[in-house]
Amino acid sequence: MIHHREDARMGLQAPLWRAVTVFRGAALVYATVLMLAGSREHTRPWLGWTVLAAMVAWTVVTGVRYHDPAGRRWTWLTADLAVTLTCLLVSMLVVPAERLAAGGATLPMAWVAGVVLVWALRGGRRAGGIAALIVGAADLFLRGAVTSATVNGTVLLLLAGGVMGYVSRLTDDAEARLQRAVELEAATRERERLARGIHDSVLQVLALVQRRGTELGGEAAELGRLAGEQEAVLRSLVGVHDTAAAAGTADLRLLLGRYGSPRVTVSSPATPVLLPAAVAAEVAAAAGSALDNVTVHGGPAARAWVLVEQEPDAVTVSIRDDGPGIAPGRLAEAAASGRLGVAQSIQGRIRDLGGTVAISGGPGQGTEVELRVPVPRLG
């Protein structure tokens, strides 16, 4: 995985490496023009042309080598720096000393900036700065004194290394975002595949159990009823996924409306109650758990009423039933004994959303569960 990401990063930086090769070619043309113009003043013109030929050959070699991500290794970059310094320092054998001291052109001139750019591209701003300082120190040694030429040249090299290092970091960030986007797309496709599988298999089985249980009657009818409720819950979850994929939001009224039945009355506003799809799914699941508790503790004849209220900054869902109510301390006793239905399925879900849960009611008075969640900013 590490090598894969490194190769992907290098691939994303490929245009920058090509740009450095183009820069070196242009700088080589400039060095050739200066050689033609000043060769009469050179002490060893033949050596100057030899250095220029070496620069041409090295530009071709590095251009080919750096085109392949495998060739962008520090061994090659170190060799690149050594060749650049050699071409620069040979200038003292070709260009008169007094001309160099006065700020005259060296043999490679701007060509030396190429190695600073590749170091910054490969290792970031720090590596680019190191290469710039090394080249600047060699230029200072060559001229023998601190002049405006040495100062300006070093500053420009530092700026070039800093800018290229910054661009290199931007490409790293872009590659990381691209990697996360690819992983998110893969996860989304996997969820869609699972949703299709659920729709084609599990939901059909639950629907069959509901139908056959109703036909058989007795205890089988109760089993069929439970299967039907679970089918509705599962369909709502699959529906939430589809809504989230399409728009990123879901209408809480529609999710809670699936719980409606002859014994469950759902009341909601006339306008959509829009929440982020994941938030709406968790609120609906918590409400479904509360309705399951109504059946478990109140029996199949217990009735429930679900009320949805929308406020500017929050949404409240109240689930009230006419069951036997909750004895004092029963929730704490259930949690202590390991029965965490309310603590996890209801309170845990809403707590994770930054909301609150209020449970009230006493023996013979029914139970009311109030779910209140803040409304996140959409868009």
UniProtKB/TrEMBL annotation:
Domain DUF5931: 8-176
Keywords in alphabetical order: Kinase, Membrane, Transferase, Transmembrane, Transmembrane helix, Two-component regulatory system
GO molecular function: kinase activity
Histidine kinase/HSP90-like ATPase domain sequence ranges: 289-376
Single Gene Ontology BP annotation: phosphorelay signal transduction system
SUPFAM superfamilies given in the database record: ATPase domain of HSP90 chaperone/DNA topoisomerase II/histidine kinase
Keyword Membrane found: yes
Entry's transmembrane regions: 21-40, 46-64, 76-94, 100-120, 151-170
Xref: InterPro entries: DUF5931 (IPR045975), HATPase_C_sf (IPR036890), HATPase_dom (IPR003594), Sensor_HK_TwoCompSys (IPR050482)
Short name of any one Pfam family annotated for the protein: DUF5931
NCBIfam families per the UniProt record, alphabetical: HK_morpho_MacS
PANTHER family from the UniProt entry: NITRATE/NITRITE SENSOR PROTEIN NARX-RELATED (PTHR24421), OXYGEN SENSOR HISTIDINE KINASE NREB (PTHR24421:SF61)
The protein, known as: Histidine kinase
Provenance organism: Catellatospora bangladeshensis
